């Protein structure tokens, strides 16, 4: 079943993040497919905030993965595969250890490692609409 969440503007992002987290249920592997500038990191920041992460959230473009702790003292892994040119590079950083951990993994630029993503990965698309609002959609 196709599901979606709309984000009218930046002031609406916290509400949208809460709605998204409620709708995705127990999914632990979240892959955000979207063009540059669509708001992947901004939405990830809102999700982390809703989960009680107190650290400053930034895109792990150069480090590939950042680890944050939620309010429940659970690790949350935030990946940015933008600079990955070969899937083998993701394997070398221990990708499967993270994905198999049972912890929430949020991935930006997953198209660069798509063949490595487990079947249970929730593939989420962020669309920038003509009015600059965003639509977050996925099949569940």
Structure description:
A hairpin with a 5-residue loop joins strand 3 (65-69) and strand 4 (75-80). By secondary structure, this protein is an alpha/beta fold. The chain is built from four helices and seven strands. The chain has helices at residues 13-24, 40-50, 87-92, 95-99, and strands at residues 2-7, 29-33, 65-69, 75-80, 104-108, 122-128, 134-139. Helix content is 24%, strand content 29%.
What integer value in Å does the Rg equal?
14 Å
Shape: globular
- Percent of residues in helices: 10-25%
Largest sheet: 7 strands, mixed
Please give the number of β-strands: 7
CA distance, first residue to last residue: 5 Å
Search tags:
single chain, 140 residues, alpha/beta, 7-stranded mixed β-sheet, 4 helices, 7 strands, globular
